[in-house]
Amino acid sequence: MTETMRSFIAVELPDPVVDDLRRAATHIRGAGIRNLRTVRPEGIHLTLKFLGDIEISQIEPVIVAMKKAAQEVQPFKLHLGETGAFPNFQRPRVLWAGVDGEMESLRTLQQSIEKAVEGLGVEAERREYNPHLTLGRIRGGASEEEGQNVAQTLLDTNLDESLNIPVDSISLMRSTLTPTGAVYERLGSAPLSG
């Protein structure tokens, strides 16, 4: 049987941004939202491409593809943006923090990665790329009243938009699901150098 692993390509966040997201998660937890599970801040990444379960033998080809994609884009900067919920505030299931800054460069990088891994048999994403940092998930959804509470809580969650997220490399991450949440491990990285 072929061994596989759950993986994705992402931008790792600097410590000051992780600390600000930790503060935001604490604020959200304090709102008493039923069935809310916040993400461990040290596990928050800006996902560029979810690969799903890939074979161990694909690690090196994915890293080569990442390096090719990263060479097409110069380093750039992002910062934290507004907060929100998927699919919306009326039925919130995923709570997130947005990113802002050099968004055209981010989209170019994401599309370059998409093209580079397509040749490896990785399925193309059908939905438009929507960059975000997941703060938490509400299991089983929320009532309309809870949705209003979530909306107000997120509106009251002020993120430090002055904190830079330098995008100068991308990482191949392994995600191992455990009873206490996902554990992440960097398997390789590629510097931006376009």
Structure explained in plain terms:
The chain has one domain: Cyclic phosphodiesterase (Cyclic Phosphodiesterase, Chain: A, Alpha-Beta Complex), CATH 3.90.1140.10. It is α+β, with helices and mostly antiparallel strands. 28% of the residues lie in helices and 37% in strands. A hairpin with a 7-residue loop joins strand 4 and strand 5. It is built from 4 helices and 9 strands. The strands form 2 sheets. It has a 5-stranded antiparallel β-sheet with strand order 2-6-5-4-7, with helices on both faces. The protein has a 4-stranded antiparallel β-sheet with strand order 3-1-8-9.
Notable features of this structure?
4-stranded antiparallel β-sheet; 194 residues; 5-stranded antiparallel β-sheet; single chain; 4 helices; globular; Cyclic Phosphodiesterase, Chain: A; alpha+beta
Quick overview:
The chain has helices spanning 15-29, 59-70, 103-118, 144-155; strands at residues 4-11, 36-38, 46-55, 76-86, 94-101, 132-138, 164-167, 169-178, 181-191. With 194 residues, the protein is an alpha+beta fold.
Task: List the topology elements.
Elements: E1 4-11, H1 15-29, E2 36-38, E3 46-55, H2 59-70, E4 76-86, E5 94-101, H3 103-118, E6 132-138, H4 144-155, E7 164-167, E8 169-178, E9 181-191
Antiparallel strand pairs: 1-3, 1-8, 2-6, 4-5, 4-7, 5-6, 8-9
Structural class from helices and strands? alpha+beta
Radius of gyration: 17 Å
How far apart the termini lie comes to 40 Å
The helicity comes to 25-40%
Main sheet specs: 5 strands, antiparallel
Determine and state the CATH class: Alpha Beta
Task: List how many beta strands DSSP finds.
Answer: 9
Number of helical segments with 4 or more residues: 4
CATH topology: Cyclic Phosphodiesterase, Chain: A
CATH superfamily: Cyclic phosphodiesterase
Q: Order of helices and strands, N to C?
A: EHEEHEEHEHEEE
